[in-house]
Amino acid sequence: MKIVNRIGHWEQHPVKTYKTRSLSAVDHLILHHSGVSSGTPESYAQYHVHTNNWPGIGYHYVIQSDGTVYKCQKLTTISYHTGNFNTKTVGICLSGDFSHSIPPKPQLSAAYELVRQLMLTLKITENNVLGHRECKGHETNICPGFSMTSFRSNISPLSKRNVSKKRNRPLLKRGNTGLYVQELQNRLKANNVSTGEIDGIFGPRTEQAVRTFQKRKNLQVDGIAGPNTWEMLLQ
């Protein structure tokens, strides 16, 4: 999964700004579709600002048909995407109209992976992953089009996915992304080593955190999470 950070990159209201919240306040993920056959985060931002008169793009994440994930707002931003549910939710939009079709495989796969990462970060269960139309007061909305029952059946906590065994942890280094990187970041944090934001991206801060942990545990200090580093992290 490729996550492209574009926070603050697209159209924003000249005066209005979104409020913020603590990360612990978030308790649901809400999935949307754009409802149009083609579209981009940039076009959604323009519509949300100029037509809806919102402070900026309403979605926290937008997933394109090729599986590229755009991060559009911080998780601590109370953006507008589902009326009466915005203060405690994260909005994820899949570009496309899925009222009579399903998302392309790369897009759906990226949605599964992103949602699993956010479930870990925010300590959210699959029961709290909802489609727009499943929110009270929005039942007449067709969004996100595809079956949320099917979607939820394909996501489950990391603990249920047979990744708890040490032999299943891959070697990780700078440039890697995904679920295992997020687990690495969470385990470093549990060992009082900060990686910054837990985003599933193995960047320079995560590499430095690995080096700090390795030095503390008298391991080879190379910034790479290999078998010995994982073994110490999993103790």
TrEMBL record:
Checking Gene3D superfamilies in the record gives: Peptidoglycan recognition protein-like, PGBD-like superfamily/PGBD
A single Gene Ontology biological process assigned to it is: peptidoglycan catabolic process
Q: Which GO terms describe its molecular function?
A: N-acetylmuramoyl-L-alanine amidase activity; zinc ion binding
N-acetylmuramoyl-L-alanine amidase domain boundaries: 13-145
Q: Which SMART domains match?
A: Ami_2 (SM00644), PGRP (SM00701)
> Where is the Peptidoglycan recognition protein family domain positioned along the sequence?
1-136
Pfam families recorded for this chain? Amidase_2, PG_binding_1
Superkingdom of this entry's organism? Bacteria
What InterPro entries has UniProt attached to this entry? Amidase/PGRP_sf, Amidase_domain, Peptidoglycan-bd-like, PGBD-like_sf, PGBDSf, PGRP, PGRP_domain_met/bac
- Family of the protein in this entry: Belongs to the N-acetylmuramoyl-L-alanine amidase 2 family.
Q: What is this protein called?
A: Autolysin
Q: From which source organism is this entry? A: Alteribacillus bidgolensis
